[in-house]
Fold this protein.
Amino acid sequence: MPSSEVYWRLSDGVGNWVFAAVCGVIALVLMRLILRERITLQGSMSYLVFLVALGGMALFPDATGWVAHALGFSTLANFFFCTAIAALAILHLRALITLSRIQLRSIALTQELAILQERLERAAPALAPPIGASPGASIGSTGPSEPPEPSRVAPSAERVR
Amino acid sequence: MRLLVIIPAFNEQAALGGLLHEIQALPAATGVALETVVVDDGSADRTTEVARAHGARLLRLCKNLGIGGAVQAGLQLAHREGFDFAAQVDGDGQHPPSELHRLVDAARGPAAPDLVVGTRYRDGASGFRSTAMRRLGSAWLRMLLRVVTGQALTDPTSGFRVYGARALRLFADTYPYDFPEPESLAVARAAGLTVAEVPVAMRERQGGQSSISAATSVYYMLKVTVAVVLAYLRARRRPRDEGRDAVV
């Protein structure tokens, strides 16, 4: 069993304060990015909470040690690393989900834009270069045979989930 | 019957013109109204100009989506405009338009499968010799799809296809983007669609370069294996379309 001195500290001396200060600086950088609208508050809120929690663990090692002991960790460092790794994994998963969702939306919007652009060019040939469409009613022609029916257009929002 | 020929093209200026010319030269088929759309998948060459010069309809994707995203754009167009069938013909010229009638005839035949795939490896197909690595990969995919879907398919990587109305409805809504050819077969089977194969002749690509090299093919196979299994499981979770579930 480690001594209580070792158990209750993340590091000797001012290490806890330095770590808390680093967390604070990163949180400030995040806030600055939010203010400059480089990132959204909604997307970075969980990251801010994570930094506050880490900073709190560093500033209040006694409380952290009590929680770690209650959870059965033999040393505070083990508890700290387990918590940090788990939190980072969750944050990464969240980012992955967000990124994948944006990718799918980007694909849907790109397709939608192409279809609408083609319609626009067909509907207003004076506004766009002619595409040489000629009515074709049999194999051997490549142009459109008739304009699309607006009633058959499915709402694009269905695909943008 | 209205048929939309979808040509996904990424930097295919060398092959596209000849392909469109061949489609224009196809003999008229009774009762078939054919249109062609080129889906320019963010090409940096003159693909757009070539498509316009040949009078084809043109979907210009403002960024490269890959073959899956490009094909789905064409399928959405076909579905929205009420086409009865859509045919997928690769823009590199591997799929001779003169073989298209085989797929269309099968799709309009008495069995009326939802998805007709042109195969290089069944009896009657000729004129194409793939690389050893590709044949090995294709053999692995055949076995995988047989285990996953329960249907024996001889050419799971073939992009020469005709989609019926039910397939159009399904794939306009959801279409795999990672490895679309084999994945879409798994999705179709999981959704209860019927899939048939028709022997066709294929040829070497008429221009451009394949995106898969020998060095990356092993990694490709690993990824596609995971993707096919996941695509099948994902599609099984979707509510099934009413209709048949027979194997043709």
